[in-house]
Amino acid sequence: MDFSVNVPVTETSFGQIGTSLLREIHARGLEPALFPEAGSISLASQEYSQEFEEWIYRCVGKSYFHDRKNPCFRLWHLSDSLQSYSEKQMLLTFYETNSPTPEELNIIKNNRTFVSNNYTAEVFKSHGAEVGVIPLAFDSHSFQINNKKYFNDDRITFNLCGKFEKRKRHKKIIKAWVKKYGNNSNYYLQCAIWNGFLKPEQNKSRFESCLDGKTYYNVQFLSWLDKNKTYNDFLNSGNIVIGMSGGEGWGLPEFQSVALGKHAVILDAHAYKDWANKDNATLVQPKGRFDSDDEAFFKKGTKFNQGTFADWDEDDFIDGCEEAVKKHKESPINEEGIKLQKTFTYERMVDRILKELKKT
Question: Which residues touch 329 (CB under 8 Å, ≥6 apart)?
Fold first, then answer.
């Protein structure tokens, strides 16, 4: 089957997934026409072979001879997906809110659209738009259990991930955590929440606002982790990952962490429900919702990303932290979490994409 692929090949979350899909396609000896999103290619965050890089550019070269009658797989934001390189476009997109706009629904209906989780599929279905579901996968190329010892004491380290945003509830999480564990040397909080779309001073200001001008020696804000190898160290260095975001397409950092055997405090809502359960995580029940408007990434009244996110109670979150600490002390390795590595693979993801492309 002749087909094309239109994915980002960059350091973003979309780009990491796009590159991982290409790596699996390359491993199968296939050579599709490749349209890198925005014409940009960067493998700077990855470890890769010269053969893989040369293959990527051969595929880009094939794009100049692409036939629009051949099916195309696209991975990208919904807002930019009316455009296409094929009459038979298959779109995989992420969506975090719950009130699709007429513009979003029109784009969905003009593609053969797939989303990354069942919650989002139900949201669209309730608004008259049928979509398929293709779960995301564990990146075994970039992330591995390394069994390193990172600290010389018996501290319990919580990791907080994802770029700083209102929807991810970072500020609320940190404020609640320091009330319970602040300046207690038995517990540490590592925050890898640098937002690359903000200026350094904006990141610093947001971090400071989480602590209300106080100093906590057991809270650390990390700068941008630009290499997957470095990020793998970060994930391995924690004992418990926090996933209390109000809305996600999947929750990749939290997912990768649990799959590496880390314990977790996870909100029992939206995309998290597709991979987090009572056996591999401590689940916190959602309580209430909050408006998606953050005046930056989700702006009220625009044609995209409208709606609300799931919220939660601070005491329930701390109870979850205490339960996760108990689980960690009983068994430092989350064996149920490690099983995610075999359940969600890029091999299965590409199998599904190729199968659906043949139907397109």
Answer: none
Strands (E), 295-351: 308-310
The CATH number assigned to the domain with range 4-137+346-359 reads 3.40.50.2000
pLDDT in tens, 180-229: 999 999 999 999 999 998 999 999 999 999 999 999 999 999 999 999 99
Q: Which residues of 233-251 are buried (b: 16+ CB within 10 A; e: fewer)?
A: ebbbbbbbbbbbbbbbbbb
- Answer for the pair 194, 12: CB distance below 8 angstroms, yes or no: no
pLDDT in tens, 36-45: 998 899 999 9
- All CATH 3.40.50.2000 domain ranges of the chain, comma separated, are 4-137+346-359, 156-343
Contacts of 247 (CB under 8 A, 6+ apart): 96, 97, 98, 167, 270, 292, 309, 310
User: Could you tell me the fold of the domain covering 156-343?
Assistant: Rossmann fold (3.40.50)
DSSP state of 79: G
Phi/psi-derived region of residue 104, left when phi > 0, alpha when psi is between -120 and 50, beta in every other case: alpha
Query: Cβ-count burial of 265 within 10 angstroms (0-12 exposed, 13-18 middle, 19+ buried)?
Result: buried
Phi–psi pair at 32, nearest 5 degrees: -75, 165
Q: How many Cβ atoms from other residues are within 10 Å of residue 111's Cβ? A: 21
pLDDT tens per residue, range 145-186: 999 999 999 999 999 999 999 999 999 999 999 999 999 999
What's the number of CA atoms in the CB half-sphere (13 Å) around residue 111? 31
CA 140 to chain centre: 15
SS3 6: strand
What's the CA gap between 52 and 149, in Å, rounded? 33
The per-residue pLDDT of the chain, averaged, comes to 97
